[in-house]
Fold this sequence. Notes:
The chain has 377 residues and is of the alpha+beta class. The protein has helices at residues 2-29, 99-134, 140-173; strands spanning 38-43, 46-49, 54-62, 65-69, 74-79, 86-87, 92-96, 175-177, 182-187, 194-195, 200-206, 210-217, 229-234, 241-249, 259-266, 277-282, 290-295, 299-301, 307-312, 318-325, 332-337, 344-346, 359-362. The strands form 4 sheets. Strands 1, 2, 17, 18, 19, 20, 21, 22 and 23 form a 9-stranded mixed β-sheet that branches. The chain is rod-shaped.
Amino acid sequence: MRDVSGKGKGGVRVALAGAVVALALGACGGEPAPTVARNVLVAHPDAAPDARGQAFAGEVRAREETLLSFRVGGNLLQRHADVGDRVVRGQLLAELDPGDLQLQAQAAQAQLAAAQAQLARASADRARYQALADEQLVSSSALDAQQAAWAAANGQVRAARASLDVARNQVGYSRLLAPAAGVIASRQAEAGQVLAPGQPVFALAADGAREVRIALPESSIDDFRVGQPAEVELWSAEGKRLPGRIREIAPAADSQTRTYETRVALQGDAMVDLGQSARVFFAPPARSGAVLTVPLSALQRRDDGGTGVWVVDASRKLRLAPVKTGTYGEDRVPVLSGLRVSDWIVVAGGHLLREGEVVAPVDRQNRPVSVVMAPAR
């Protein structure tokens, strides 16, 4: 009896062990266990009146910037100015070696002297023939020949005198003078360099009006016009804004950056240093109203090359909503279309997500968020 009882208990143990193994094998061979929903950080888009409008970084420049060069070529003998020097109108900035030009002037002077000698002889011959013609001792044709010789000699003198004036001017062109008072903004040549006519030597920022050069994006160029008011804030004077106005917008976009170079003139007697960094603020367009903004980290690249934002719907599933964005800020970007203020958007880790994935939305305090919203558009 004991043996039979012992075998019965052993059989029960074996049966239980087999059942456990069978359950384990069944679990391995069946459907995978459901995965836990991924936690995602969500937030609503910020919706506030766009009181600040758009801001663009720029650089303070002079309204009149002139590239200075010699009108003749030659060897740069000496520079008398350097970058940052303040100069006045007529100040000597640089000199070319005038040796060859002076020789040309001397040759022109000698040609003028020879032409004047020819004219003097032609004048004497004409006077003598005129006296003989009065006494009818020479023919009128001979007198006409002397008259023509005198006219030719007189023309040679005038041509030689003009050549001499040109040669003297070229000697003067070997000296580069400042056309106006201002500051030397840049230097493109050094002493000893052989220059071609018109090759830049200096860039002169003339005294007077100052303006800020910025680049406007092609996507919003229709929001700007010449004469539009603006406010300029220097990086060195944060919080202090100077009045300005758009003076010029380039007629075509830059082929590389696809932006339009724009000049914003400072109003009044604002005195700022050249080259300073500045930000130019524009009031928002009247049609903009309340503008939604999202963190830059919320933006995702769509398969079609556009921009999207992950939106969590009422069933906690993800949808990559296509959006149209405005000008990028330091950490946020305005969304012009594609979102509503009630949407819950994923603001971090979007590159790890996929369309239709079920997630567990949480706020910045890691508290679960109950997604209650209108049906997605």
